[in-house]
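comment on this one:
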Amino acid sequence: MSETEREAMEYDVVIVGAGPAGLSAAIRLKQLDPSREVVVLEKGSEVGAHILSGAVLDPCGLNKLIPDWKEKGAPLNVPVKDDNFFMLGEGGKIRIPNFPMPPLMNNHGNYVVSMGNVCRWMAEQAEELGVEVFPGMACSEVIYGENGEVKGVVAGEFGKNPDGTPGPSYEPGMELHGKYVFLSEGVRGSLSKEVIAKYDLSKGKEPQKFGLGMKEIWEIDPAKHKPGSVTHTMGWPLGSNAGGGSFIYHLDNNQVYVGFVVHLNYKNPHLYPYMEFQRFKHHPMVKELLEGGKRVAYGGRAITEGGYQSMPKMVAPGVALLGCSVGMVNVPRIKGNHNAMLSGMAAAEAAHAAIEAGRSSDELNDYEKEVREGDIGKDLKKVRNVKPMWSKYGLLASLSLGGLDMWTNTMGFSFFGTLGHGKTDAAATEAASKHKKIDYPKPDGKLSFDRLTNVSYSMTNHEENQPCHLTLKDPSVPIEHNLPKFDEPAQRYCPAGVYEVVEKDNGPEFVINFQNCVHCKTCDIKDPAQNINWVTPQGGDGPNYPNM
């Protein structure tokens, strides 16, 4: 704990992160007791600025939280009208019929949404109930109490020099204390990572698995636009190099979300996920859709993919992990926002009951029980083997075996039990000498774009006179270890061009362009030496996504 003296404010519940989980928790707490003191702290410049998701939203969480959301103007305006699944080859495609798919794969009743805009609307609902919502407030430190419990967080520290010392305009921030602290930071949150390690919450669980999701918003020719059309693809261009696939969602205003996901357990360090995404857009099916249109936004974000068997223990004294801080994405459905909302509500209900009973700073075991045994656990348990099957047996085998397993799980049993994931994504990376380099075509500037040009469409910005938030445990590792063994894959796995190996007179140098960072957390996950630690920059920095 730092020695800096700070003012402290007391709340019933302190919530870190204004995503669907954190905002659902805040709203539910106020619904249960309007006098409850609740604060939500968000590192983005505004609510929604750091939200990036597909997204086709299953409204089950919202139905439970705010049943009259339609009357209240929630931005769920484009119902899904048709579902398409394709297996791609380089020049063609095969449609995978819908009828053999288990019912859980059906998108009927779901909506194509901007989750950033959904979160903006949810924040308005929270504020109307009296929740204090503070954007631009990065939480940089966990505060622990005398008995080792989580007591609160430090938020709003500004003005440090690059070396970490206080600068001339230094603001120490504040301590925000709560009877309970909810961490709803999304995937690989810096405080969540610390809490998971401190209390050994992953003990006995499978390693968490991740994907990298990249997304562009395109305005297309109105003649090609089909609001509510949902398409998913697998196969080309990844082939056997990596698991993953794409999504193409038609929303309103002649806009289309074009997204690409690469599972981060790939072996070949020469793989360049961003360039796989750019190559994908040259497939005839995608090219035909996008030609004549223009890209208007870009971003990237890691996705939790470990599922049911990788969820850590969610509670420790004084703290609960919500949503993607735990990892609640249903991988075959590519959906986690509904579970994030349900988790926020469950945590709120457990905290409300505890405070009513005069408790504080203990473990909210009722929350954990509800997640594992309630709707979230049931949703994730049915699909728990799809990801490990894909990793072990490849795409085609996993389609048939995974489909069979989802069908039998719908009926309450599995032939396979619960499969494990094995290695972490970092440990899955193999030596560069075992793999061929991949020759990627140069972006054409019309359908495909170089990384730095695309990053400018994320509106990302960082105050440059601050400590680099991408910290190296050992600065020698990138050049002395990762470069000779793995051809330093940070040059390629980062979707924002943060990391470079630059040839200097005295040899290669590892350069970190932290101002480009879109806060995806891929480096923290995939670095084979686990040498990069992502910590939060000062509040308000990072991407400024308009309607991702």
Notes: The first strand starts at residue 7 and ends at 16.
